[in-house]
Amino acid sequence: MLEAAGRNRNALAATPGEGWALHRMTPASRLNGANGIRTGADGRIYVAQVAGSKVSAVNVDTGLIETISPNGGGIVGPDDLAFDEAGNLYCTEITEGRVSMMTPGGEYRVIHGDMPVANPITYHQGRLIAGELRLGGRIMELDRDGGAPRVIYEGVPMANAFEVGPDGKLYFPAQGANEIWRIGLDGGEPEVVAKDLGVPDSVKFHPDGYIVSTQVYSGQVLKIDPRTGAKSILADIGPGLDNVAFVNGRTFVSHINGSITEIVEAGRTKPLVEKGLQWPLGLAVDEAGHVLVADGGFSYLLRPGEALQLAGMLFSPGFPGWIRDVAASGPDEWIVTTANGDVARWRPAAGESTVLASGYARLMGVAVGPGGDAVFAEFDTGKVFAIEGRAKGGGAGSGNVVELASGLDRPMGVAVAGDGTVFVAESGAGRVVKLVGGRRETVLDGLARPEGIAIAGGTLFVADPGANAVIASDLAGGARETVASGLPIGGAAGAQMAQLGGVGDMCGPMNTFNGIAAAPDGTLYLSADAEGSVLALRRL
Asked: What's 446's domain CATH number?
């Protein structure tokens, strides 16, 4: 049995099938990432979680976490949040391009529905102000009764988490300029407060009057004098920082990976919530048994007996983009599909990537065949393609892309057998098919919503989040077995997690994908997105 844990702690325990053992390779995550944070009237920190379409509240003394707005609730992809004096919660929904409100009684409504890449939001003396994380973005005062907004300023190079300072002006990161600006609430021309930063993504005022700003690229938390722009380092936590909140003079910062850290004093920190995985998505194992874990805007390497090591992120040199699935193609070399519709070869250690094919709609699974062809599935069109001979050690070009199949029902996972036969999981049809001479033959049916698939030792393994199970089928005889059930994959009782749209020009649709991969030693690795961990399954 694998007891429920982390953000999935109220679920049922998972059960391995007869002859199988099941355990976690990484701890279960307690949050679905951590984006905007704000202190509530009750002294708890409220956390917006884009990946989980969730808002949670964290007790800073006990670490206890309570879900305030759940996945599947009325708030979708919240990036930042604010409260008014009546206790109404306002959230920017970055993938929906809107601002929504939840009342203390749990009722939802949209405040403003035309704000592409909605991100920062704050409330000050009866005024609700929100902005857009895009080049040329707007900062606007919103009418909470649904009237037309008032534009405070248009033309910001990516506004992020902001706050009104003691002088009554709005201070905000101009992220694209790598600067902090301020502007009067009635408009005018902005002034530069600080420059030459580490890509700031939040500006908050400590009760003592100085600015605390997280730097998403450098990973530093800076203390900045709003009068002179002079700065010093409060902490160096690592790339991916997001936001800041204060509780009774204590300083807390969030990280996109789901951690919340208290800065006790300059240079000294302690965790409130430990880091984890936001999703995770696709998995691949190389010949050395190293596992690459795709976690959207982050990817990690998992080596047996070691903790997760960051392989790359959206701000890393050569990172190919928001990654959905991965396949091993050589030492420190991986083929990936991205939310932007690209297939790319990525070499994390070298900090470089090469686009092999582009312009596709919602790419899902990818696999590399014995001859080096990269096979990938396009969800929206129901097609499967191959890049001939360019996946392993090819040059910089895109390669020759050929269509292998069309008319598939929401294809997701792909796998290639040792003889080159291509297998595809049709999530919409609840089956796995193989492609033979332009025809499709059903290999395994009666599934709920198959996603990731893998082949090892003549056996097909299927991650089926619709059934919260992993199924195995003997490709020679067709016999099937349940490898594990009650797994923390997908939603409760097989429900699908909220599917998110894109984030402006930065990222295409952020759809979930349950990956499964087989290691040379026979171990199966599974992305457990419901709890944010990687699981391992082994035959006894």
From this structure: 2.120.10.30
pLDDT digits (tens, 9 = 90+) for 194-221: 999 999 999 999 999 999 999 999 999 9
| Domain annotation covers residue 372 | yes
> Residue 144: left (phi > 0), alpha (psi -120 to 50), or beta?
alpha
> Which tens digit of pLDDT belongs to each residue from 89-107?
999 999 999 999 999 999 9
Q: Find the farthest-apart pair of alpha carbons in the chain and give their distance in angstroms, rounded.
A: 75
Residues with Cβ within 8 Å of residue 508, at least 6 apart in sequence: 322, 338, 339, 340, 341, 362, 502
> What is the Cα–Cα distance from 393 to 471, expressed in whole angstroms?
33
Instruction: Determine, yes or no, domain membership for 314.
Output: yes
Predicted TM-score (pTM) of this structure: 0.92
Q: Say yes or no: 269 and 281 in one domain.
A: no
Residue 162 φ/ψ, nearest 5 degrees: -130, 170
Backbone angles phi, psi at 254, to 5 degrees: -100, 155
CB-based contact 214:241 (threshold 8 Å): yes
Boundaries of domain holding 341: 17-27+277-492+510-539
187 and 47, same domain (yes or no): yes
Whether residues 470 and 455 fall in one domain: yes
- Alpha-carbon 92 to chain mean position: 17
Could you list the beta-strand ranges (E) of 225-267.
231-236, 241-247, 250-255, 260-265
